[in-house]
Specification:
This protein is an alpha+beta fold. It folds into two domains: 199 residues, Ribosomal Protein S5, domain 2 (2-Layer Sandwich); 172 residues, Alpha-Beta Plaits. Helices cover 40% and strands 21% of the residues. The protein contains eleven helices and 13 strands. The longest helix has 25 residues. It is globular and about 60 Å long.
């Protein structure tokens, strides 16, 4: 991949002398969805797919960006210090937002830079291509310009960028998983405190499989921000009686005791998901430590039901994949993953039955939804690094 990126840089900019190549991963969340902004726990892992960049510092103040994923959109060119929203090409607002956030936090580029990006995360899949390109950009700028920013702070800076420059009110999970990924491990993260621990994912005869519904997902254009507002409203109503700062502080029994404070059933459902999903995530981490894949899979399936019925962030395509997969032999657990409204499902399957599972889901999904699903056999990888 390093050679491919340097050759691409040569093609676009006419030279490859002094070019460095970096990578930052995408992520999949095993369980703990829509809990990160509700003060709960999440359980993501970084993937070996992600975003690459070939970069070279310039002698002037031009910043030029090109993506091999969107060659038809051409070059993005801005000046150091001029970090307004870019109308075209729109993809570059993710890296521009990071440079803007660095500037806001006092980290100033003293020269321009040429960049070529390439990502092997399918766009709109819900595997966090946005966080991947954000963390990648922050990481290589930090390395090249010697800002000395720690990885946790890189994650926070990228979340700040996406919240305030790109207009998506996302939590910390995606950026944290990309920045702090560790091969072979999921990250059990308390989003209220940012305390975390690595949990080895030891599957014996099973494998992770991601199934892309190919219904495009965009948290900026979906009801993602609506769900966050609804959860915050439910929290404010609970706070009239419960001494809490987040929904993640409540156990199931404490929620049931105080839910009468919430003024309508829709908001009860939103809060119930946040509370119960957090507890499922804690139980799932304990199950993984005990190598209880059966319980882990059951918790994944329960998570999907809650996301479908209480939080209402699933969609017909994701529901069909989960419904059909659970009919098959060799499926331990499966759920939608990511912000929802499209994107992917993640599941744990018997390795020797995966090909048969893929074939059966492929046929019935096409019949029921009129779309072809894609399948990704994935490995858990490391965080950002220089190649």
């Amino acid at each position: 991949m390093k050679d491919k990126l340097t050759e691409l840089f040569l093609k676009i900019y006419g030279s490859r002398d002094g070019v460095s190549v970096y990578f930052a991963p995408g992520r999949v969340n095993l369980i703990g969805e829509h809990t990160d902004y509700n003060g709960g726990h999440v359980f993501p892992c970084a993937l070996t797919i992600g975003t690459y960049a070939a970069v070279k510092v310039r002698d002037d103040r031009k910043i030029r960006m090109y993506s091999d994923n969107f060659p038809q959109k051409g070059m993005c060119e801005i000046e150091v210090g001029d970090y307004g929203y870019v109308e075209k090409p729109d993809w570059c607002n993710y890296p521009v937002g990071v440079i803007w956030a660095l500037y806001k936090k006092g980290y100033v580029l003293d020269r321009g830079i040429d960049i070529v990006y390439y990502g092997d995360i399918p766009s709109g899949s819900g595997l966090s291509s946005s966080a991947s390109i954000e963390v990648l950009t922050a990481y290589f700028l930090n390395e090249i310009f010697g800002f000395g920013i720690e990885l946790t702070d890189i994650a926070l800076l990228c979340q700040y960028s996406e919240n305030n420059f790109n207009g998506s009110n996302c939590g910390i999970m995606d950026q944290f998983a990309s920045a702090k990924g560790k091969a072979g491990n999921a990250i059990f993260l308390d989003t209220a405190t940012l305390e975390y621990e690595y949990a080895p994912v030891k599957l014996d005869g099973q494998s992770l499989l991601i199934i892309n519904s190919n219904k495009k997902h965009s948290i900026v254009n979906s009801h993602y921000n609506d769900r966050r507002r609804e959860a915050e409203t439910a929290l404010s109503q609970l706070q009239k009686e419960a001494d809490i700062k987040s929904l993640g502080e409540l156990s199931e029994s404490e929620f049931e005791e105080h839910k009468h404070c919430i003024e309508n059933e829709l908001l009860v459902k939103r809060a119930r998901h946040a509370v119960y999903e957090n507890q499922r995530t804690i139980k799932a981490k304990m199950a993984l430590q005990k190598n209880d894949i059966k319980l882990f899979g059951e918790l994944m399936a329960e998570s999907h039901v809650s996301l479908r019925d209480d939080y209402e962030v699933s969609c017909r395509e994701l529901d069909v994949i989960v419904e059909e997969a659970l009919k098959l032999d060799g499926v331990w657990g499966i759920r939608m993953t990511g912000g929802g409204f499209g994107g992917c499902c993640v599941g744990i399957f018997d390795t020797d039955k995966i090909d048969n599972i893929k074939d059966k889901i492929d046929v019935v999904y096409k019949e029921r939804c009129g779309i072809k699903a894609d399948f990704y056999d994935v490995s858990i990888g490391d965080g950002p690094h220089k190649l």
